[in-house]
Amino acid sequence: MFRAVFRLSATGARSLARSQQCRLAPVATRCYSHGKVESDEEFDARWVTYFSKPDIDAWELKKGMNTLIGYDLVPEAKILDSALRACRRLNDMASAIRILEAIKDKAGPHKDIYPYLIQELKPTLTELGISTPEELGMDRL
Amino acid sequence: MLASRALSLVSKRAISTSVCLRGGHGVAKVEDYALPVYFDRRENPLPDINYVQTLSPEQISLKEKEKGSWISLSNEEKIALYRISFKQSFAEMNQGSAEWKSVFGGVLFFIGFTGLVVLWQRKYVYGPVPPTFDDEHKAKELQRMLDMRINPVEGFSAKWDYENKQWKK
Fold it and tell me: Is the reported ipTM for this assembly greater than 0.85?
């Protein structure tokens, strides 16, 4: 908060306009008055590239996924597709199911996001043979 | 994440019996608390270590099968693989408990007990109230306030009818 006050006092109306614009941008970015704001497409592309690394290791998958879940958003289908394929490369079926559980939990009260994502990911799920938590009965107690 | 690790009730530590060698100076023992911990948290879906560290022979063969095509895995095998890596599913870790009823009941019980203590104190601990609390004394106080015209405009004495010596209707 103090950093914001300093910024507003030290710079001017121009930076105020910039920081206003920043607040509308995806929250994954930092609010610098002079820095470039990352667009949604750039964010998605960056994460797809991260998970598409051919020799990704288990730690990187975990770190990436935990970081992604930490953001205030539900990842796009293409990022999840990339992450599920990374699970396949690592021979980690359990993590693939866990990722699906996590994004359903991440959607929170917006109940229509998860079915949409499953619909988008259906080709990948059938190709790789990943079952959804619902198919395994893991969404119930 | 460190705070949640401290607070988590379920933890499964990575078993490590190896010791660190450093530049030939000696052996540093890796302490148990310094190793990664397993915990189920919504915000950390993939914990640092698998839940089951030592696999049984069936689990080892299942892990081998996992390296092949997943389409050939049955639902039970998929669930078994999940349970090797994770302790509780999201549904299980997010479920509520009935603990709040015990907590609420306990709170009310202790408030009630405190009430009994207060009543006992009033009877056995505290001395009598001063004589100024007697009805007769209070009546004299009231008359004095009216004679002094306390708050005559909108407050106390304003509500007293001095002609008829009664409260205004």
Answer: no
d(CA A46, CA B82): 29
Q: Is B44 helix (H, G, I), strand (E, B) or coil?
A: strand
Measured between CA atoms, the residue of chain A closest to residue B41 is A102
pTM of the predicted model as reported, rounded to 2 decimal places: 0.70
Q: How far is CA B97 from the centre of its chain?
A: 12
- Burial environment of residue A4 by CB neighbours within 10 A (0 to 12, 13 to 18, 19 or more): exposed
DSSP string of B15-41?
Answer: P----EE-TTS-EEPPPGGGS-EE--B
Question: CA of A126 to nearest chain B CA: how many angstroms apart?
Answer: 8
Cβ–Cβ gap A69/B43 under 8 Å: yes
How far is Cα B7 from Cα B85, in angstroms, rounded to an integer? 21
Model confidence over B42-80: pLDDT tens digits? 999 999 999 999 999 999 999 999 999 999 999 999 999
Question: What is d(CA A109, CA A92) in angstroms, rounded to the nearest whole number?
Answer: 29
Nearest to A98 among B45, B71, B94 (CB): B45
In chain A, positions 74-93, which contact chain B (CB-CB < 8 Å)? Answer: 88, 91-93
